[in-house]
Specification:
Elements (H helix, E strand, L loop, with lengths): L4 H6 L8 H23 L8 E6 L9 H6 L3 E6 L3 E6 L3 E8 L2 E8 L3 E6 L4 E4 L27 E3 L7
Parallel strand pairs: 7-8
Antiparallel strand pairs: 1-2, 1-6, 3-4, 4-5, 6-7
């Protein structure tokens, strides 16, 4: 007697290997590599520019208090025309940006990133939030234009864990 393949998937054990974490870490390394290339060359190639969305209160994030108050959960920044001092290492990046004419330095660990989008080629990565189970608090929209969300060239990492 043979088992029905559809029944087998319902009885798969939970993995003892954290595949979802490994994949997310690898994809976040893509963000670091792309930003590292920009930092090394000192300029964005062609029409490339990046929207980076991150959790403002994640461990290791360093942003001005006024930005945390305005964006208590998540914020999107744009790296395009006006940024400076982009420094990239294995676990985070820092960059200078201006908000309402006020220069600011932001330090963002890759683990805090929830989205990365390059509209020039419609490439996008999305990551699971690494926060607790609480829903995010509502916040004002970022000052930057939001990228289109039509789903083209999107890699979404959203593993569901069995409880």
């Amino acid at each position: 007697m043979f088992a029905n393949p559809n029944d087998m998937s319902e009885h798969l054990p939970d993995s003892l290997i954290p595949y979802d974490e490994i994949v997310q870490e690898a994809l976040r390394a893509v963000v670091g590599r792309v930003l590292g290339t920009v930092a090394d060359t000192g300029a964005l190639p062609g029409d490339h520019h990046f929207y980076v969305t991150f959790k403002t209160q994640a461990p290791g994030v360093e942003i001005p208090q006024r930005l945390i108050e305005r964006f208590p959960d998540e914020m999107t920044i744009v790296l395009q025309n006006r940024f400076w001092d982009l420094i990239v290492d294995e676990s985070r990046f820092s960059v200078g940006l201006s908000f309402n004419q006020v220069p600011s330095k932001l330090v963002i660990p890759y683990s805090a990133i929830t989205g990365f989008h390059d509209p020039a080629v419609n490439f996008e990565l999305r990551f699971q939030a690494q926060e607790g189970p609480d829903e995010p608090e509502p916040h004002d929209e970022a000052e930057n234009d939001q990228p289109p969300r039509d789903g083209s060239n999107v890699v979404s990492v959203d593993f569901k864990r069995k409880k």
